[in-house]
What does this fold into?
Amino acid sequence: MNPPPVTAAPELEPSPPARRLSTDLQELLAEANGRSLTLGQLEAILQGRGFALFILLLSLPFLSPIAIPGLSVPFGVVIMFIGVRIVMGRKPALPRFILGRKVSYVILEKMVNIGLKLCKKMEKVVRPRMHFLQRSPGMINLIGAGIASGGLLLCLPLPPLIPLSNTIPAASILLLTAGMVERDGLMVLLGYITNIAAWIYFTVMFLMIGGGIKHLLHYFGL
It folds into this structure.
């Protein structure tokens, strides 16, 4: 009896390249096509990436040297809410009154343009590494806590005169989210460090403001 003919092993198809954040942002702007979109519509458009890109998008306006007024409180609340859901191990879901809030195309375009400049720089250094900071048990929950913490700082109704009050927490959110999306543990670690730095900065600012108010009251004899 002749042995069965040996067949060549089928060639493995190359795995498709990972989508880049800049590509997703460009597609989002094309999908908007000049229209104002609600947060619910943005969430639906970005659902292929999950809530990670949604969080990243909402943190982008605060990384610009020129602030976009009126966004820190509502966007901070949304980011904090999603972060808390991640900590609890639940699928992020937003209440209807939040999903119905509109973002004008002008603001959306500014957000995406900021994101494109930033992402194209980040994509040169971000890569999968130090997976234990992203894949180990409980790590995603810990990342969610960092995101919620940054969102809490963003939604504090602070006067815009305080420098970097939005930039530092937004940077921590961006690093944590990018590390989660791109499976880059180093970015996650930098996100934690930036988050701690944000809390230290806010604590020092509050102590200085409190000391200044106390000094003024004492000066006027109150």
